[in-house]
Amino acid sequence: MTAFDEELVFKALYETFPDPVIILDAQRIIRSANPAALAQFGYAADAFIGQPARLIYADDSEYARRLHNRATNVDERIARTSTYSYVRRDGSTFSGHLRTTPLVDAGGRELALIGIIRDVSDLAKAVLERQQASDMLDAALDVMPEGFAIFDAEERLLVYNRAYITVCGPAGPLLRPGMTAEEILLLAQRAGHYPEALPGNPDWPAWVAHRLQDFRQPDNQPKIYRYADDRWLRVENIKTKDGNTVVLRVDVTELKRAELALERQRQELEHKNEALDQFTATVSHDLKAPLRHISMFSEMIEDELAAGNQHEVSASARHLRDSAKRMNRVIDSLLDYAQIAYQISTWSDVNLGEIVTDTLSVLGSHAREANVTFEVGALPKVQGDPELLRRLVQNLVGNAIKYRHPDRGAVVRVNGRTSGQQVELVVEDNGIGIDPRFATRIFEVFQRLHHDENTYDGTGIGLALAKRIAESHNGTIHLDTGFAEGARFVVTLPKRMRKTR
Amino acid sequence: MAKSPKRLLVVEDNAHDARFVTRALSQTDDTLYIVHVTHADEAVARLEHEHFDYVLLDIKMPGIDGMELLQRIRSNEGTSVVPVIVLTSSTNPSDVLRSYKAGANAYSAKPSSLSGYRQFAEAFVRFWIENTLPPGGTMLHQ
Predict the structure, then answer these.
(1) pLDDT (tens digit, 9 = 90+) per residue, A433-469?
(2) Which of the residues B114, B117, B118 would you substitute to probe the A interface, choosing the one with the greatest number of A C-beta atoms within 10 Å?
(3) Of A119, A307, A420, B113, which has the most beta carbons under 10 Å away?
(4) Is residue A311 part of a domain?
(5) Per the CB < 8 Å rule, is A292 touching B110?
(6) pLDDT tens digits, residue range B97-123?
(7) Which residues of B touch A452 (CB under 8 A)?
């Protein structure tokens, strides 16, 4: 074994070192390069040695960055801050992590710089790909219409997308990574973002506690909350295996509104069905009763004729005729009722004042007979079918006269007023009044409150007709049950018609 | 058959129907004492002060209807066990069911002939009057 020759060893190391080693002088001229450097950059030694260092940098800006980093003594141990794009002789480039060691003389002057360039292309590519994947994911998350965020095990916000900022409402612009779920919730709540937990509502702490509970121990059931005035938010919190919480927020307003509209329609339909059932039952009852009576009185006449009971025969014949008349009236009323379409088609401007004046003159003789005092206030104009509105007024005023109190002078008051887009017509009397228990039933077909047809005749169609007329104008009618002096009916009509529905 | 006359309250708003049924009933049993009222309120007032053995009730009446009256009769201590026979023009099964649920003892559709009324009266008298046992289990006609 020969003696240990240190110089020889270092030379061998230099020759066989797997990473490119390049030595520059103070003028940044390449003075030496090991075989690995020549191989990496693709030069023969004589074409490489003596060239300026700029040769190996991919472009001016990359070289400028290197010079800047050197001047500022950047920490070269960190690959990120000390990786440059290098160029081979054939023009291809690669990423290299540069680490340098200066050689200084006793006076501190730099003589040369030893640089080791490790090819980190594979690593740089991996990093780049990861960054691209991450950017892609961020971009995808940001265009997602669903709000998405991840909180760590300490309930601190890690990442969130654009939609999440939106659903957080007033808390959205204040979102920063590191904020806790509770802070975010309270920020939005205090700003009135949740109609079910407005700051003035004494129940808000319970509501917040409930939401936090669902965040901390999600039961995997999505919840729907109202938010942002009149919108609906579907909230889903999911605990992941690594202890994070993924939260998903979907605006389900359209869905919820459609659901609510459907429910409303269902109820309306149910109500209409019930009304139809009621109508059929009532109509069949009121048509069948006189028919039954007719049949039985004719039977009685037969019996009485056989018994030679002349006086009874004429009484039964009279009853028979009455029943036939009654049936006729019922059928007429029904026809009346059926003729009013659910939606009238012709609209014109109608002066309610004129209609009331006309009605009073039509009912004049009747009213004089009953000694009725009329007090008519100023009445608004509406749009509608004048003939139908005339019948509506006639029915109400007629009822007011008919059901007068026997012990006091009858007073009928007709007043109107406009409030917003609505017109109100109020007909009130000081008559016998209506038991508030029957406030709804009186508007059903053939519902009468008085059995005594001699005092109060009629088939019980008047108010049903009035209701149908009001409704065909997209209006309403109701009995003011708070009015004790007599009966007060309030008809509400829209001032202007919507042409389409 | 020595007996105190049975008292029947007929609640019926229609004058013709009331006439048919009272006629058929009194022709079948002339000892039956019949009071006819046309309005549920009147029925309530009469039941409050007088004793009735049976109530014959129409469902469809102006104001308080028969069903509501029946519920009142059942919830009132003095009348809670009075037999109530519903006699109405409705043959609607839901009305029948509702009547029994509200506490009717029997339900009958209004007949559409005189003989039908006679049959109803006959059945009423046989079932409700002749079958009645006096307290203590002794037969009524002994």
Answers:
(1) 888 888 888 888 777 666 555 556 667 788 888 998 9
(2) B114
(3) A119
(4) yes
(5) yes
(6) 999 999 999 999 999 898 999 999 999
(7) 38
Whether residues A335 and A367 fall in one domain = no
Q: What is the total count of domains within chain A?
A: 4
Q: Which two tokens stand for residue A407?
A: 């012990």
Residue A370 sits in the same domain as residue A329: no
On whether residue A500 sits in a domain, the answer given is no
**Do A92 and A65 meet the contact criterion of CB atoms below 8 Å apart?**
no
Interface ipTM = 0.79
Residue with tokens 């009185």: A297
Q: Do A451 and B38 touch (CB under 8 A)?
A: yes
Q: What is the dihedral sign for C-alpha A203, A207, A213, A216? A: negative
- Structural domain for A238, as ranges: 144-251
Residue type, A241: K
Beta carbons of B16 and A435 less than 8 Å apart: no
Query: In this structure, are A447 and A364 located in the same domain?
Result: yes
Q: d(Cα A192, Cα A199) in Å, to the nearest integer?
A: 6
Query: How high is the mean pLDDT of chain A?
Result: 88
Spatial CB neighbours of A332, under 8 Å, sequence gap ≥ 6: none
User: Residue A451's pLDDT is what?
Assistant: 57
Confidence of residue B140 (pLDDT cuts 50, 70, 90): very low
Q: What domains can you pick out in chain B, each with its CATH number?
A: 7-132 (3.40.50.2300)
In a domain, A385, yes or no: yes
Q: Both A325 and A382 in a single domain?
A: no
